[in-house]
Amino acid sequence: MKDNPTIRVRGLVTRFGTHTVHEGLDLDVRQGEIIGVVGGSGTGKSVLLRAIVGLLEPNAGQIEVFGQSVRDTSDAEHRALRRRWGVMFQDGALFSSLTVRQNVEAPMREQLDLEDTLRETLAGIKVRMVGLPENAMAKYPSELSGGMRKRAGFARAIAMDPEIVFLDEPTAGLDPIGAAAFDTLIKQLQAALGLTVFLVTHDLDSLHAICDRIAVLADRKVLAVGTMEEMLAIDHPWVHEYFHGPRARAALSSAGKGIV
Amino acid sequence: MARSGLPPKRLGALVDGGVLRLSGRLLIDTIEQLDQDFGQDASRFDVSQLQQMDTAGAWFLVDRQIQMAKQGTVLEIIGATSAQAQLIETVARNMPPPDQPETKPFTIADRFEAFGQKVTRGWRMAVELISFLGQVVATLAGILRHPSRLRLTSVVHHCQEIGVSAVPIVALMAFLIGVVLAFQGSAQLRQFGAEVFVVDLIAISILRELGILLTAIIVAGRSGSAFTAAIGSMKMREEIDAMRTLGLDPVTILVVPRVLALMLMLPALGFIADISGLIGGALMSWIELGVSPAVFQTRLVSNTDVWHFSVGMIKAPFFALIIGIIGCYEGLKVGGNAESLGRLTSASVVLSIFMVIVMDALFSIFFAIVGV
């Protein structure tokens, strides 16, 4: 099983007009791991995520999820594939006209034929799992704080019990305590649900605390993939700056002391 | 874990001496395959044969445990892998609280309460609208004292948007109304041989009422909604709050230029509608009744009091004020979500058209009393 990566990207090329974002990008994501994708602004982290989940058509390259190509599949196959992953967008991307509970119910309502009470109960469990209080269920996204919206977005992403979740900057804009709590939440649910997590992040604390491996995007491809220790040994200027800068050192030392 | 390699989603269950053995896949799609009553008296669930279990499956087990606990028996789940045990434990921690409040039926009293709330909401809104009107008028008065505060560029821009761009649609609308009036009027008046009175019919109805009223309705739909949408989306993106922190007054910058431009342009558009309506009426009278343009003109000048025209023009700035105030007020009321923007935009159009018609009715009474 280890030989078959859950997500396999080969020779990915994406361009916007004359601007090339990815040029021959390769990436493997193993089953059950939390992979952190980092890179400077504009290196195409979110573009990579969007290409994998099929929101964006790459110019060339192969993307396989569960050994199945994402690009040339029939609609039915793609629908089946989409059921096996969940995506959480940066600001939650909740449907503003639905309550939190209805947001979580939305994918179940669309893809399954469940009884109303059962669906509500299951959605309720998901909402509680991400640590939202009971009274948040009936609230609309506009009535929630940024952190709660992210949690609700996460609850919707795991509504169908996916095998992979894609998280786009889950801790951006959260206070340190909220960010740490979110990290713990990801780790807990990853263990409980056996998730593979594809995490786009800038948060060095998250990288230290929960990521099994880190993929660095630079120079239009994946520059390096490996554990934190391996990253620290890499000699590329941007990677060095990123993992040895003052913030990185602070995050590393706090992680070393076991505070996180 | 690769699900594609597994047989189709199936759940198996058999009771074996007080032990319910589950096999196959206990998933969100399969839990409903198992009857609620099946294995009621089993005191142990053996899940070691399960190939797969998800949150819904875990919920199923936990729910059974809770049901059994209510009847005083303990349900034991055996054979779970550590991952499954962890999932069951996570779900058990997040089960709904046992005493969920029942949803109350909707009674007569609730109906009254909802009605009362609607009335007070309407009343509060009327008060807010009037105070907003006062605020705008006060700002306008302040600008009269310090004319340099007026955003002239903005006023001119809105004059272009509200006035000049609306000329074709307003002119066409009024022309067609003139045509319809002449056509319908001549059919009725011909029965009495009073065809020539069609000129009075057209002149009075268009100059006094229809020209300005229909122009106001078109402008409310065109510009009033645009005001709400533009100001509302600025509100949504916190631009209005940013203005306030920078010491800029949103009423001076956003509301006054729009209201002022509307008050300047609506009479002009009304005038264009009058002319265009009369031309349409004259054309149709000529075709249908043979009333030549020269006769139409003479009769128009000799028989139609200039007050008919004045009445229409007097009403125009008031209609403009109503449309502008309501459009801007609803825009400033937009909250954080896109839905309120859409709702308030349509509310703005409906309310301003309604208020324009109410105002028109009040004007009719007023002019009847003063006798013009």
From TrEMBL, chain A:
Would I find Transport among this entry's keywords?
yes
The entry's keywords: ATP-binding, Nucleotide-binding, Transport
Q: Does the keyword Ribonucleoprotein apply?
A: no
GO molecular-function term, one example from the UniProt record: ATP hydrolysis activity
Q: Which SMART domains match?
A: AAA
Highest taxon of source: Bacteria
InterPro entries reported for this sequence: AAA+_ATPase (IPR003593), ABC_transporter-like_ATP-bd (IPR003439), ABC_transporter-like_CS (IPR017871), P-loop_NTPase (IPR027417)
Query: Which Pfam families would you find in this protein's record?
Result: ABC_tran
Which residue ranges does the record assign to the ABC transporter domain? 7-244
What name appears for this protein in its UniProt entry? ABC transporter ATP-binding protein
Q: Which species is this UniProt entry from? A: Sulfitobacter aestuariivivens
UniProtKB/TrEMBL annotation, chain B:
Domain of life (superkingdom): Bacteria
UniProt keyword Transmembrane helix present? yes
Gene Ontology molecular function terms on file: phospholipid transporter activity
Location relative to the cell = Cell inner membrane
Where are its TM segments located? 125-144, 164-182, 255-287, 307-329, 349-370
An annotated GO cellular component: ATP-binding cassette (ABC) transporter complex
Q: Which UniProt keywords apply?
A: Cell inner membrane, Cell membrane, Membrane, Transmembrane, Transmembrane helix
SUPFAM superfamilies according to UniProt? SpoIIaa-like
Provide the topology term for how it sits in the membrane. Multi-pass membrane protein
Its predominant location is membrane
Q: Identify the residues that the record assigns to the MlaB-like STAS domain, covering every copy.
A: 20-89
- Tell me, what's a Pfam family for it? MlaE
Q: Which InterPro entries match?
A: ABC_MlaE_roteobac (IPR003453), MlaB-like_STAS (IPR058548), Permease_MalE (IPR030802), STAS_dom_sf (IPR036513)
Statement: the UniProt record of this protein carries the keyword Cell inner membrane: yes
The record's section on PANTHER family has: ABC TRANSPORTER PERMEASE, ABC TRANSPORTER PERMEASE PROTEIN-RELATED
**Family membership noted in the UniProt record:** Belongs to the MlaE permease family.
Query: Which purpose does this protein serve, as stated in its record?
Result: Could be part of an ABC transporter complex.
Q: What name has this protein been given in UniProt?
A: MlaE family lipid ABC transporter permease subunit
Q: Which organism is it from?
A: Sulfitobacter aestuariivivens
